[in-house]
Design brief:
It is built from four helices and nine strands. The protein is an alpha+beta fold. The protein has two domains: about 80 residues; about 50 residues, no CATH class. The strands form three sheets. A four-stranded antiparallel beta sheet has the order 7-6-8-9. A three-stranded antiparallel beta sheet has the order 1-5-4, with helices on one face.
Length: about 160
């Protein structure tokens, strides 16, 4: 994974996720294509320095240096790039209707939010942890991306 240490804690961050694991060839292609996109990524004419990488064969994490002032149009262009990339590769990293968790075996799994909500109330062996794909700042990513179920965004669904 790319070292995000050179970015400040308040750097904006986006997490994209795939319900199915992405193979290493797909991740390498995404990394290569993102690098080409990022070389020309600008916000109102100012280059946006970014870092991006895959995590656990499920997540694509993008962070932008706030010094480049990423804003509406530049953020839209990054999302547009990723949407087009996904269409060309028959993948969907933009569907926010999924919950991602680490099973007792350590595998990363995905369920639709509706299914996950019902499932965690009835399953005997709860997930080890849950991933928070709605995080929008690097500081939160560092501390809250993967949390035990009982301390996660899904804790209120335990009933």
């Amino acid at each position: 994974m790319t070292n995000f240490a050179s970015f400040p804690d308040h750097a904006p961050l986006w997490i994209f996720a795939s319900p199915q694991p992405l193979d290493s060839e797909t991740m390498l292609q995404l990394r290569s294509d993102w690098t080409r996109f990022a070389e020309g990524w600008k916000s109102h004419g100012t280059p946006v320095r970014s870092g991006a990488d895959g995590l656990y064969d499920r997540f694509w994490v993008v962070v932008a240096d706030p010094q480049g002032h990423p804003s509406g149009c530049s953020i839209d262009s990054a999302h547009r790039f990723l949407r087009q990339w996904c269409e060309a590769h028959h993948l969907d990293l933009l569907d926010r209707n999924w919950a991602y968790y680490r099973s007792e075996s350590g595998a990363i799994e995905a369920r639709t939010l509706a299914d996950f909500r019902a499932w965690i109330k009835t399953v005997e062996t709860k997930p080890r942890s849950v991933f928070h794909t709605g995080i929008s700042a690097l500081s939160s990513f560092r501390s809250e991306f993967e949390r035990p179920l009982e301390r996660s965004w899904a804790a209120s669904w335990l009933g």
